[in-house]
Amino acid sequence: MTADRRSLTRLAHERLSEVLGEGDWAIDATAGNGHDTLFLARAVGPSGRLAAFDIQEEAIANTHQRLAQEGLPARVVLHQAGHERMAEQLGPGWRGRAAAVTFNLGYLPGGDHAKTTLPMTTLAALDQALALLRAGGLLSVIAYRGHPGGKAEADAVTAWFERHAETLKTEIVESPGPVLLLGRKK
Questions:
Q1: What are the 10-residue block averages of pLDDT along the chain, 186 residues in total?
Q2: Cα(120)–Cα(124) distance, rounded to whole angstroms?
Q3: SS3 category, 19
């Protein structure tokens, strides 16, 4: 299946909606400008728990502003930390509890394009995300291949999903630019 960038995001949100509901726990591993964080905050509702991570101060500020505009900042704990520090930041109480973990790799739209996610930290974060997911939970990754290093990261993530075929039921959706990788934990 092939799609464009917007339809990949829409498809990711549709799949996430299948596993998320009121009271669930979720993680946005790359908050960026807060679009996925806002979607997840609505999905988990007022009794859910949501943690969002981004290493860039600008991304955390943008995400907070987006949540505040919608009256939802109390639903989210924002962590200015790399996604490879999820487990450390969240603690053992999150292990096996998350209904969904999302990643939107690459650079911060509207930000410094030289600051990008990197294969080494992304792969470490994926290992942690798998441990944080509950059975039936969904791992969603959109990997952008059009920037320097993007293709190598997308290839590394695809290989990671292939290595975890016994643990994840995987769906891969291609586009001319990014690729969407979805993994439902068995």
A1: 72 97 98 97 98 97 97 96 97 98 93 91 98 98 94 97 97 94 98
A2: 6
A3: helix
Q: Which phi and psi (to 5°) does residue 24 adopt?
A: -75, 165
Residue with tokens 């639903």: 75
Please list the alpha-helical segments (H only) found in 53-171.
57-69, 86-90, 119-132, 150-163
Q: Does an H or E element contain 50, and which?
A: strand 49-54
DSSP annotation of 147 reads S
Could you give all domains of the chain from N- to C-terminal order, each with its CATH number? 5-185 (3.40.50.150)
Report the alpha-carbon distance of residue 185 to residue 54 in Å, rounded: 24
pTM of the predicted model, to two decimals?
A: 0.95
- Contacts of residue 76, defined as CB under 8 A and 6 or more positions apart, other chains included, come to 37, 41, 50, 51, 52, 63, 67
CA distance 7 to 126: 23
**Using CA atoms, how far apart are residues 60 and 52, in angstroms rounded to an integer?**
9
Question: Who's near 133: CB < 8 A, 6+ residues apart?
Answer: 96, 98, 99, 100, 101, 139, 185
Q: Residue 44: in which H helix or E strand, if any?
A: helix 35-44
Question: Both tokens of residue 176?
Answer: 């001319």
